[in-house]
Design brief:
Layout (H helix, E strand, L loop, with lengths): L2 H28 L11 H4 L1 H4 L7 E4 L4 E3 L30 E3 L3 E4 L15 E10 L12 E3 L3 E3 L2 E3 L4 E8 L2 E9 L22 E7 L4 H7 L1 H9 L3 E2 L10 H10 L3 H8 L13 H7 L3 E6 L21 E2 L1 H11 L20 E2 L2 E2 H15 L5 E7 L14 H13 L6 E6 L13 H6 L5 E4 L2 H6 L1 H9 L7 H10 L8 H8 L34 E5 L5 H18 L9 E13 L8 E10 L4 E8 L3 E9 L12 H4 L6
Parallel strand pairs: 11-17, 11-18, 13-14, 13-17
Antiparallel strand pairs: 1-2, 3-4, 4-8, 5-6, 5-7, 5-9, 9-10, 12-19, 15-16, 18-19, 20-21, 21-22, 22-23, 23-24
Helix pairs in contact: 5-11, 6-15, 10-11
Length: 651
């Protein structure tokens, strides 16, 4: 599908959405009891998302791991989440740029000559210089390793053959303009294999889009449109996806190498400390089977590998824009400085611009351009965003439209028909006021992970896909993502027959388990090699039913039960006759004690019904989702409402 077709389809969809909004406004205005859902109020809209669970009282609730449900608008963080929060600074406008590019050529914009006081075009000279990052040599500093080609002068237009280009323009010998450009030329395919790769079957592109420091919950709160498209396209959400470390580096190493930090240094750095070139990155394996590879981040200064003072001697992938981003960060010098903040205020995000666009938009444009360039070739690409989501809960609101649009374009163009798209994060936000709340302590351990599988794959590898769906409610880790990527290298291990065979093998204590195999329901953090400090699982600890706190809980539960039947006079009022058992749901990590959760099971009178609920105590009681009926004591129907019949006793 052409870009023009995609654009026409985009306009058609936008028109339909506009009409739906008008109709919705009419309904809200004239239909009693109707309630609007505003895109500008994402925190209200996503309440529906959080409730779409098999057991809404928990995020996951397996034999080996229980993770409690948390409200996206939990009271302790309401002052921190705000759709009208301060926005990042805008980027300088290139509306009146002296230069423009169309993907193949750079040209001067003659209609803007007056703005630059250019009277005689023959006195305008522009210098085109490509640049690249050299190997280490005498310097390990990325910036000083940048090497430029000789100047190629042009006056009105010049053809582009390079990835990274710097252009300086001079009028009457004086510099009046300078700009950097990023391109995606088709490169010759090279491989270290002695024999050319031949494939017996078609393979799937692998596109990984990363959002740094983005928890599942903050993704719901701030990127509703993106979430909506992922749901519409039937992406699989791994709700029990648990971080394995405090920083991006260690979590990404688990995804890309399947290693922890200690193993990384033992395997990668014995001969060349400070470099990662000897590491067995997963993209090398995809390269070996015929894929182009790409690794792109929207920040150089705050890149994944910068914190560990590590670097690559040579470019690690076929397409690698780190040298360009680093060059631009120094070239433009327009990074915002963090503002002072107290512990209950978020810091200003690490935002910056590349020219007239925010860094994340340049990253998304790069994806768009690269998949077009490599349309007939296979691509493994990791594209990691940091600048908007890393330090601020609310800034990701600014990215929502852009991420929703790129995913929609990939879908409408047909690219996703042959692509497995992974949208993920490393951990939740660990700065600003939220880190001092119990909610934040849970969110930091639960990053987002969505996997969008093409229909062709689902139909061919049905059992593998069914297991992926089942694993939505299981404890999973970045190590599992790595093992899953290995399965996607050749696909031979994903046939139904192979999945059945592999499922009988003893793999439950493996650190990494493919998400196409059944993750054991009894899997614990210890089995998955998640340190207790980062384990989001909670344990159920028996709590004395005679405690005064439970007496007040019983009164609250009685009140909520009777609220469900108050409109039905044939239903008799209920009271808690006996507290059967109580468990406090306690995290295994050291936590803030703002609230306490209790799983309470009671029997009621009259009728002897058994009910279970998760109650949260924080300056009073609240009900975590619904009250669950645990038996079928009430044999007859008292009302026409099956839901109410679960609570109604009519004698």
């Amino acid at each position: 599908m052409s870009y023009q077709t995609v654009l026409s389809e985009q306009i058609r969809i936008d028109c339909v959405l506009f009409i739906m909004k008008v109709i919705g406004a009419f309904i809200v205005a004239f239909v009693p009891g109707s309630h609007p859902v505003s895109v500008k109020e994402p925190y209200q809209a996503v309440k529906i998302i959080a409730d779409n669970n098999t057991d809404n009282r928990f995020t996951i609730n397996s034999e080996g791991c229980t993770i409690p449900y948390v409200d996206l608008n939990e009271i302790s963080i309401r002052n921190l989440i705000n759709s009208a929060a301060i926005s990042p600074s805008s980027c300088p406008s290139y509306k009146h740029s002296l230069l423009a590019e169309n993907g193949t050529h750079i040209t001067t914009v003659t209609e803007h000559f007056k703005l630059f006081k250019i009277v005689n075009e023959s006195n305008l000279k522009c210098c085109y210089r490509s640049f690249y990052r050299a190997s280490f040599g005498a310097s390990k500093n990325t910036f000083t390793r940048i090497k430029f080609s000789k100047c190629r002068l042009f006056q009105s237009t010049t053809k582009v053959n390079d990835e990274f280009v710097k252009v300086n323009c001079y009028y009457n010998g004086k510099e009046i303009y300078k700009r950097l450009f990023l391109f995606t030329p088709k490169k010759p395919f090279t491989t270290a294999r002695k024999e050319p790769f031949t494939s017996e079957r078609s393979m799937y592109n692998i596109i990984i889009m990363g959002l740094g420091s983005m928890s599942r919950h903050n993704f719901y709160r701030t990127m509703y449109k993106t979430w909506n498209f992922m749901k519409q396209y039937e992406a699989v959400e791994l709700k029990g996806y648990n971080t394995v470390a405090a920083d991006s580096f260690q979590n990404l190493i688990a995804v890309l190498l399947g290693l922890n930090k200690l193993q990384l240094h033992n395997i990668c750095s014995p001969g060349q400390p400070g470099t990662l070139d000897n590491c067995p990155f997963i993209w090398e394996r995809f390269k070996d089977v015929g894929y182009y590879t790409a690794f792109a981040e929207d920040s150089g200064k705050f890149g994944v590998f910068n914190k560990e003072n590590l670097d690559f001697k040579d470019n690690p992938t076929d397409y690698y824009i780190h040298p360009f981003v680093k060059q631009f960060e120094t070239f433009m010098k327009n990074r915002q400085k963090p503002q002072k903040h107290n512990k209950y205020q978020d810091s200003v995000a690490v935002t910056s611009c590349i020219g007239d666009k925010h860094n994340f938009q340049v990253l998304l444009d790069y994806i768009d351009s690269l998949v077009t360039t490599l349309d007939q070739s296979k691509l493994f690409g990791l594209f990691w965003e940091t600048t908007m989501s890393h330090d601020n809960l609310n800034y990701p609101l600014q990215m929502d439209d852009a991420y929703a649009l790129i995913i929609k374009k990939l879908k409408l163009s047909g690219y996703l028909n042959n692509t497995i798209l992974i949208l993920m994060s490393d951990h939740g936000i660990n700065s600003g006021g939220i880190q001092f709340t119990k909610q934040g302590q849970l969110e930091v351990r639960l990053p987002l992970l969505y996997i969008l599988i093409p229909k062709l794959f689902r139909n061919e590898f049905k059992l593998a896909y069914q297991n992926l769906l089942m694993n939505q409610q299981r404890l999973t880790t970045p190590y599992d993502v790595h093992t899953t990527l290995i399965d996607l290298l050749g696909l031979s291990d994903l046939s139904d027959e192979e999945i059945r065979r592999r499922s009988t093998e003893p793999y439950s204590h493996n650190r990494g388990i493919s998400l196409f195999l059944p993750i054991p329901g009894n899997r614990t953090c210890q089995m998955a090699e998640i340190d207790q400090e980062w384990c989001s699982c909670h344990k159920l600890v028996k709590f004395p039913i005679s405690n005064a706190l439970i007496k007040s809980a019983s009164r609250y539960l009685t009140q909520r039960l009777n609220e469900k039947i108050k409109l039905y006079p044939q239903c008799m009022g209920l009271a808690v006759a006996k507290v059967i058992e109580v468990h406090e749901i306690i995290p295994v990590y050291e936590r803030n004690v703002e609230w306490r959760d209790f799983q309470v099971r009671v029997s009621t009178a009259p009728g002897g019904g058994n009910f279970e609920a998760v109650l949260r105590h924080h300056k009073g009681w609240t009900l975590v989702d619904d009250i669950k009926r645990m038996d079928d004591t009430y044999k007859h129907s008292c009302t026409r409402d099956d839901y109410v019949n679960g609570y109604c006793y009519c004698g």
